[in-house]
Specification:
The complex is a heterodimer of chains A (about 80) and B (about 180). Chain A has a domain at about 35-75. Helix content of chain A is about 75%, strand content about 0%. Chain A is built from three helices and no strands. The chains are: A mainly alpha (about 80), B mainly alpha (about 180). The interface between A and B is large, with 30 and 44 residues.
Chain lengths: ~80, ~180
């Protein structure tokens, strides 16, 4: 059967026009970013935000303590 | 063989390698399924576009060849469905999707295929859709049962059954032997 089916072997060539169409489109399309890369980017962003918030909170706490200490010393 | 990692990074050189290696197979498989050069070139372009866009999410669970055949079959099906839907527009939209896919016998196809090939092509195209797809991949591209199963997203035993039934049908006709 496979021998009979090997009849089906006509090959049409790839035209230059098709080659140009396919190869040109590649330069115009950026490959989709993988999901893990997007997730990792989000995680980094969130971590940076949290770190920044903690830093600001700590600084504010420090200022308040200094202010209270100073206030007590005035009294 | 093109490097998948470099392809993921958008390497033009690797894409060119991939194109040179697989475009003849993709083009000819689509040609046997669709039968019209212009349509086939459009579908081939769509396949390579999908490859560029989707290569980042390609998990390499199957070979890149199998993955590309799967895209090709999907694109051909999509194309035929749209074409058949347009033809039947206004008749009964509700039953459109249950209709078998029909490929036209184009003058170009008759011209390109030799007489014996033409008769065989006609017999293969008279088969039910899944048998037709399996037989085209088996006869045209010498894909193994495993590769055809992966491309069509069904089990190897289902492929064996499809090919067995297709062979039985083709043996019944046998006009190309005369």
């Amino acid at each position: 059967m496979k021998a009979d089916l090997t009849l089906l072997k006509t090959r049409i060539p790839v035209s230059d026009e098709l080659r140009a169409r396919c190869l040109d489109q590649q330069s115009g399309i950026k490959p989709a970013r993988s999901n893990w890369l997007i997730a990792a980017s989000f995680l980094v962003l969130i971590s940076l935000n949290v770190a920044a918030c903690l830093f600001v909170i700590k600084q504010q706490q420090g200022t308040r303590v200094t202010y209270l200490n100073n206030f007590e010393s005035y009294e | 063989m093109p490097n998948i990692e470099l392809l993921r990074l958008g390497s033009e050189r690797e894409f060119k390698k991939l194109f040179e290696l697989y475009s003849p197979r993709i083009l000819n498989t689509a040609f046997y399924l669709l039968g019209n050069r212009q349509d086939v070139e459009d579908v081939t372009q769509e396949v390579f576009k999908s490859v560029v866009v989707g290569v980042a999410s390609f998990k390499a669970e199957s070979s890149i060849q199998t993955w590309m055949y799967r895209i090709t079959l999907n694109k051909c099906n999509e194309f035929l469905r749209t074409k058949n839907r347009k033809k039947r527009k206004g008749i009964m939209i509700g039953i459109v999707d249950s209709q078998p896919l029909i490929t036209e016998e184009t003058p170009e196809l008759v011209h390109i295929l030799k007489e014996a090939e033409w008769l065989l092509w006609k017999q293969i195209h008279a088969l039910p859709e899944k048998q037709r797809l399996a037989m085209t991949l088996f006869a045209m591209d010498d894909l193994s049962y495993q590769e055809i199963a992966a491309a069509m997203n069904i089990s190897v035993s289902a492929i064996e059954s499809l090919l067995f039934r297709a062979r039985t049908q083709l043996k019944k006709y046998k006009p190309y032997e005369s």
